[in-house]
Amino acid sequence: MSVRELVVLGTASQVPTRHRNHNGYLLRWDGEGLLFDPGEGTQRQMLRAGVAAHDLNRICVTHFHGDHCLGLAGVIQRINLDKVPHPVTAHYPKSGRRFFDRLRYATAYRETVGITEAPVDADGDLAVTPSYTLQARKLSHPVESYGYRLVEPDGRRMLPERLAAHGIEGPDVGRLQRDGVLGDVILDQVSEVRRGQRFAFVMDTRLCDGVHALAEGCDMLVIESTFLDEDAGLAKEHGHLTAGQAAAVARDAGVRHLVLTHFSQRYSEPDDFERQARDARYEGELTVARDLLRVPVPKRR
Fold first, then answer.
1. Mean pLDDT confidence for 137-141
2. Which of the residues are catalytic?
3. Contact at 8 Å (CB) between 220 and 199?
4. CB 3.0 to 4.6 Å from 276: which of 127, 202, 241, 243, for a disulfide?
5. Is 106 helix (H, G, I), strand (E, B) or coil?
6. Per-residue DSSP letters for the chain?
7. pLDDT (tens digit, 9 = 90+) per residue, 267-293?
């Protein structure tokens, strides 16, 4: 059975707190695992969340500020220690290659797994698999930063009443799906498009075109909301979003499930983020993330 869920490993911005670890997010997508922004302490958070190195297929780093990448050294060494048997690909801004190299080889260890590096230097598709296309869009932050988006290919939903009207049943349904035609009946006559799911991960950024492009039509949007709305000036100055801004993006993009995260240590009351998101008239499902939370990706429409 396929599983699509977000496992939240850490939700703090800049520094960890007693209740929030540095960033870290694992997206389980069918049989693959995509680890986003492994901050310091990610390896231990993986252990607490029941996530193994064998679960990782891709590592996606948005930018090279420490709270988004200092966990890379431990995670990469754990991948090698556990001798993960499948390929692991790392995506990160190309301008930060020297930081990735330093983290990858921060200490001596036995390298048993060949991690493929696939740096990002422009908007576009990064990988195409049968299950998804991974895309990147540039964001607006003091250092180069990219957000990531998964787009599942559209499929087809068979319509039982139309199949019955044409007398198609049993193994013939499978033949029609495979071949696209059965006798004088074509697939379009007895099915409809089933829209593929969409997931986006947006970290440190001001409002910009990339934020809106990543969020458009998403079933789940994981997005930073470092500041509350009363500190919008600070957010813009430091290259971040407020809760209300993040929620307005989700509202305008038709996002089904909004996950707010990356909270400044200056705030102690998470309910304020939810309140401001609702004040921005976002009406979809809303989660204010906390460490070790599991959030299912909404079922297909």
1. 98
2. 67
3. yes
4. 243
5. coil
6. ---EEEEEEE-BSSS--SS-PSPEEEEEETTEEEEE---TTHHHHHHHHT--GGG-SEEE----SGGGTTTHHHHHHHHHHTT--S-EEEE-BGGGHHHHHHHHTSS-----S-EEE--B-SSEEEEE-SS-EEEEEE--SSS--EEEEEEPPPEEEE-HHHHHHTT--THHHHHHHHHSEETTEEGGGGEEEEPPPEEEEE-S--S-HHHHHHHTT-SEEEEE--B-GGGHHHHHHHT--BHHHHHHHHHHHT-SEEEEE-B-TT---THHHHHHHHHTT--SEEEE--TT-EEEPPPP-
7. 988 899 999 999 999 999 999 999 999
Contact 205, 147 (CB under 8 A): yes
Write the pLDDT tens digit of every residue in 176-225.
999 999 999 999 998 888 999 999 999 999 999 999 999 999 999 999 99
Buried b / exposed e along 150-177 (16+ C-beta atoms within 10 A): bbbeeeeebeeeebeeeebeeeebeebe
- Determine the pLDDT at residue 301: 80
Q: How far apart are CA 254 and CA 283, in angstroms?
A: 10
14-18, 98-102, 141-145: the lowest-pLDDT one: 14-18
How many CA atoms lie within 13 Å of 256's alpha carbon, on the beta-carbon side? 14
Residue 43: closest CA among 63, 24, 20, 62: 24
Q: Which two tokens stand for residue 57?
A: 């297929």
Place of tokens 């044409």: 166
Give residue 209's identity as a one-letter amino acid code: D
